[in-house]
Write a structure and sequence with these properties.
The complex is a heterodimer of chains A (167) and B (172). Chain A is of the alpha/beta class and 167 residues long. Chain A has a domain of 107 residues: Nucleotidyltransferase, domain 5 (2-Layer Sandwich), CATH 3.30.420. Helix content of chain A is 31%, strand content 20%. Chain A contains 3 helices and 7 strands, in the order αβββββαβαβ. Chain A has a 7-stranded mixed beta sheet. In chain A, a hairpin with a 2-residue loop joins strand 3 and strand 4. Chain B has 172 residues and is of the alpha/beta class. Chain B has a domain of 104 residues: Nucleotidyltransferase, domain 5 (2-Layer Sandwich), CATH 3.30.420. Chain B is built from 4 helices and 8 strands, in the order αβββαβαβαβββ. Chain B is elongated, with a radius of gyration of 27 Å. The chains are: A alpha/beta (167), B alpha/beta (172). The interface between A and B is large, with 53 and 43 residues.
């Protein structure tokens, strides 16, 4: 008696085989890995530490320049932060309880400390260490922004990168 | 040495668990990617140079543009060059009235482009906003001065105008 052999597909089960059908997922894995690498690379470049600045509404711009991390100064309508460290309170976007002609002493002190810490870590100062990433609410008046920027300049930070949301 | 003894079957890995992890990661990353589209705009503040010299343009194909922003939307453009006479630069000075509290973006951009066409090596603009000008308004002015939108052969191009921005304030 001749035994007829049944034709089988590549994923067909053996007779009495209890294992589930297995698919060849290698190609799909390759695609997914590529997408993940791309997304992770973009994510690293684009993510902004907005924990402190979560209440900040960024102005929109047509700029295409990508974000580079540096010392961040975030000014919201209620509070100001340097590197996530709260510096002072604002009253609906206005600086209160400060001499109108003076710079911002707490900001100056904090920036000096951060600068000294960074210089101590790096033998050669990097470009990023001399630029301030300025995260400010779009409703703020220039008078407030000017005082913050001038205080930064007093410490040696004369270059800024304004964080904006892409249009 | 173990060689499989003529077994042609390849080892099959169960990649299902890994697929689950990767799929979750992709959804998370895609969600975050869409939410964090942040760019930057470079700017600086004026500084005192050691020699006491200013950075105003000197070459004949270069000027420094001064852009004054008023809170009511009015704007005023002047140009400066250390080696040119004020009479030579006077034709490039122009004021624009605000429209409903906003500045006349189109005419300002047109005028800055005409300056750029005349002085091709120019890159610097000094923006001087009023105290009551909002940060959003300042960023909009920087965009207007930075580039121009043109359509060449059906394709949009964005030639650069004045990307080097110095933000200053009036001496009080």
């Amino acid at each position: 008696m001749s035994r007829r052999k049944k034709k089988r597909g590549p994923f067909a089960k053996e007779e009495g085989d209890t294992n589930p059908t297995s698919f060849n997922l290698t190609a799909l894995m390759d695609i997914l890995s590529n997408i993940i690498f791309f997304l992770m690379a973009s994510f690293g470049a684009q993510t902004l530490e907005l924990t402190s600045a979560s209440k900040v509404t960024l102005p929109s711009s047509t700029s295409e320049m990508t974000l580079k991390m540096s010392i961040s100064v975030a000014v919201g309508m209620e509070e100001m932060f340097v590197e996530d460290e709260p510096i002072l309170k604002l009253n609906n976007g206005e600086l209160t309880g400060l001499d109108s002609e003076r710079f911002l002493p707490k900001l100056e002190e904090t920036l000096k400390r951060i600068k000294a810490q960074r210089l101590a870590k790096n033998e050669k100062p990097k470009e990023e260490d001399e630029v301030v990433l300025f995260i400010a609410d779009k409703r703020l008046r220039y008078a407030v922004i000017d005082r913050v920027m001038k205080t930064c300049a007093r410490v040696g930070f004369t270059k800024f990168r304004y964080a904006v949301s892409k249009k | 040495m173990s060689g499989g003894g003529g077994n042609d079957e390849s080892t099959a890995f169960d990649l299902t668990a890994l697929m689950d992890i990767l799929s979750n990661l992709i959804f998370f990353l895609m969600a975050s990617f869409g939410a964090a589209v942040v760019a930057v705009l470079p700017a600086s503040v004026p500084t005192i140079s050691e020699g006491g010299e200013n950075d105003t343009a000197r070459d004949m194909d270069k000027v420094t543009v001064n852009l004054r922003l008023m809170a009511n939307g009015d704007t005023k453009v002047t140009v400066a060059n250390n080696d040119m006479l004020p009479e030579e630069l006077a034709p490039y000075a122009k004021s624009f009235g605000g429209v409903e509290g906003k500045f006349d973006r189109k005419n300002l951009n047109d005028h800055l482009w005409s300056i750029k066409e005349k002085f091709r090596a120019s890159k610097d603009v000094i923006i001087v906003p009023d105290d009551d000008v909002t940060y959003e308004y300042l960023v909009e002015a920087m965009d207007t001065a930075r580039e121009r939108h043109m359509v060449v052969d059906g394709t949009s191009v964005y030639p650069e105008m004045f990307p080097a921005v110095v933000v200053s304030s009036l001496v009080k």
